[in-house]
C-alpha cells in the first residue's frame, strides 16, 4: 500500500518537479533568519507591556519560566516600540508566502512511512509536525488580530505567547537537525546535479515527476514577488508618508479627517462607551492619589500647572504607528510631586472612563513616570484633544505600546502596585 501511487503515503503520489532539497533548503534558510527575528521582536513586544509590574498589564499570568527574560522596558529611544513592533508585524506578513511555499515543499514528509526509521528521524518528524501546526497557528492568529482588531478579546495574548514558544521550540529542534544539510545543499547549488547530493535520492524529489510548467527559479521569483507585494502593501502603516500604500493594513489609506487631531486611532470614544456628559468641564475631575492623600483637579486647574511639550508617536501592537505628534500637558513626575512623591516618582496605576474593550486600566513603571517627556496630555498639535484621542486628558509615554497611553483618564494612583 505504501507504494500505491494513488495514496499520499507513496512518493509517486507527489509529482511536482519543483520539490527537492535545494528548493526546500533555500526557503528554510530564509525562514531561519526571518522567524528568529519574529520571535525576538515578539518577546520584546511582550516585555514592553511590563507584565511583571501589575496584573492589569499581564495577559499571560501563568507564564512561569517563560518570563525569564523580562526586563523593565526603557523610554529611550522614544521610537523603540514603534520600530520593534512594526518590524514584527510587517515581517510576519511578508513571510507568509515563504512559509506557505516551505510547507508545500515538505508535504510528502508528513505522509511518509514508516513513521520513524530511527530516533533522529522520529525527532525530526515530531519537530516537523509541531513546526507545521505551530507555524500555521501563529501566523493565522497574528494576521486575524491585525486585520480584525480585538478578534480574540481576552485570549489573543496567551494564545499567541504560548503558541510562539511551542512553535519556536519546534523550530529550533528542526533547525538543529536540518540546517547543516540545508547549508551544504546551498553551497553546492551552482555545481551540476551529479556533483552534489543527487536530489533523486532524497525523499522530496518525485520518482516520477510531471512535466514542468515553471522552473524552480521561476517558482522562487513567484514566492519572492508575493512577499514583496505584501511588504509594499503593509509597511506604509507605520509611516505617514507611505500610509496610502498600505492597502492591506487596517490603518492604511488616508488619515481620518483633517486638522491637528487627524491621525490614526484604534478605539473611538463611542466604542469605549464614553458619555460626553461625564467629560464636560463642569463634571470631569481628575483624581490623583499618593503618599500625602488625594487631590482632585479640573481640566482648567490642570491647565494652570506648568505645561511641557513632547514629540512622541502612538505605536500599536497591531503594527501601525503614527509619526511624532506634538503633545502638551503636565509631566507625570509633577503630578506625582503634588501627592508627596517629589524626589523619586514611583510606579503609577491609571484608570480610564472607558467602559468597553481591553486595557481600561494600565500600570506604568517608575522610570516611565520619571521621564520628563511622559505627560498627562491636554492638547495635541496645538489643539485640545478630540474625544477620540482621549479628551479631556490622556497619558503619553515615550516608547510605550499604545494601549498603555491611556485615554479619558479619570484616576491616577502613585505608589506600590
Automatic annotation (TrEMBL):
CDD domains per UniProt: SO_family_Moco (cd00321)
Positions of region (Disordered): 192-212
Molecular function per GO: oxidoreductase activity
Domain of life: Bacteria
Residues passing through the membrane, by range: 21-49, 87-107, 128-148, 160-183
Pfam families: Oxidored_molyb
Keyword Transmembrane among UniProt keywords: yes
Residues of the Oxidoreductase molybdopterin-binding domain: 278-414
Keywords linked to the UniProt accession: Membrane, Transmembrane, Transmembrane helix
Magnesium is among the record's keywords: no
PANTHER family (alphabetical): BLL0505 PROTEIN (PTHR43032:SF2), PROTEIN-METHIONINE-SULFOXIDE REDUCTASE (PTHR43032)
Record-given protein name: Molybdopterin-dependent oxidoreductase
Organism: Streptomyces antibioticus
Amino acid at each position: 500500500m505504501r507504494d500505491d501511487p494513488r495514496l499520499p503515503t507513496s512518493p509517486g503520489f507527489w509529482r511536482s518537479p519543483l520539490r527537492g532539497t535545494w528548493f526546500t533548503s533555500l526557503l528554510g534558510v530564509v525562514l531561519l533568519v526571518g522567524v528568529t527575528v519574529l520571535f525576538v521582536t515578539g518577546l520584546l513586544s511582550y516585555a514592553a507591556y511590563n507584565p511583571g509590574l501589575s496584573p492589569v498589564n499581564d495577559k499571560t499570568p501563568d507564564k512561569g519560566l517563560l518570563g525569564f527574560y523580562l526586563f523593565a522596558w526603557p523610554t529611550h529611544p522614544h521610537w523603540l516600540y514603534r520600530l520593534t513592533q512594526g518590524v514584527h508585524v510587517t515581517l510576519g506578513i511578508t513571510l507568509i508566502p515563504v512559509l506557505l511555499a516551505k510547507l508545500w515543499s515538505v508535504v510528502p514528509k508528513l505522509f511518509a512511512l514508516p513513521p520513524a526509521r530511527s530516533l533522529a528521524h522520529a525527532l525530526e518528524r515530531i519537530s516537523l509536525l509541531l513546526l507545521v501546526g505551530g507555524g500555521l497557528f501563529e501566523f493565522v492568529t497574528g494576521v486575524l488580530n491585525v486585520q480584525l482588531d480585538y478578534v480574540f478579546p481576552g485570549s489573543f495574548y496567551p494564545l499567541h505567547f504560548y503558541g510562539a514558544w511551542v512553535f519556536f521550540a519546534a523550530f529550533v529542534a528542526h533547525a538543529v537537525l536540518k540546517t547543516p544539510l540545508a547549508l551544504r545543499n546551498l553551497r553546492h547549488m551552482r555545481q551540476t546535479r551529479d556533483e552534489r547530493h543527487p536530489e533523486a535520492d532524497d525523499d522530496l524529489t518525485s520518482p516520477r515527476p510531471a512535466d514542468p510548467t515553471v522552473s524552480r527559479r521561476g517558482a522562487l521569483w513567484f514566492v519572492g514577488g508575493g512577499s514583496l507585494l505584501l511588504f509594499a502593501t503593509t509597511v506604509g502603516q507605520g509611516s505617514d508618508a507611505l500610509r496610502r500604500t498600505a492597502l492591506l493594513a487596517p490603518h492604511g489609506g488616508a488619515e481620518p479627517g483633517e486638522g491637528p487631531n487627524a491621525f490614526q486611532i484604534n478605539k473611538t470614544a463611542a466604542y469605549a462607551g464614553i458619555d460626553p456628559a461625564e467629560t464636560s468641564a463642569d463634571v470631569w475631575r481628575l483624581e490623583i492619589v499618593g503618599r500625602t492623600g488625594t487631590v482632585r483637579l479640573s481640566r482648567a486647574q490642570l491647565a494652570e500647572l506648568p505645561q511641557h511639550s513632547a514629540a512622541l508617536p502612538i505605536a500599536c501592537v497591531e503594527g501601525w504607528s503614527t509619526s511624532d505628534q506634538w503633545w502638551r500637558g503636565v509631566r507625570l513626575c509633577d503630578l506625582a510631586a503634588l501627592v508627596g512623591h517629589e524626589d523619586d516618582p514611583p510606579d503609577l496605576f491609571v484608570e480610564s472612563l472607558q467602559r468597553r474593550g481591553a486595557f481600561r486600566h494600565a500600570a506604568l513603571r517608575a522610570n516611565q513616570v520619571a521621564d520628563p517627556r511622559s505627560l498627562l496630555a491636554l492638547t495635541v498639535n496645538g489643539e485640545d484633544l478630540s474625544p477620540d484621542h482621549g479628551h479631556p486628558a490622556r497619558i503619553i509615554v515615550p516608547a510605550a505600546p499604545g494601549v498603555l497611553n491611556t485615554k479619558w483618564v479619570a484616576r491616577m494612583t502613585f505608589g506600590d502596585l
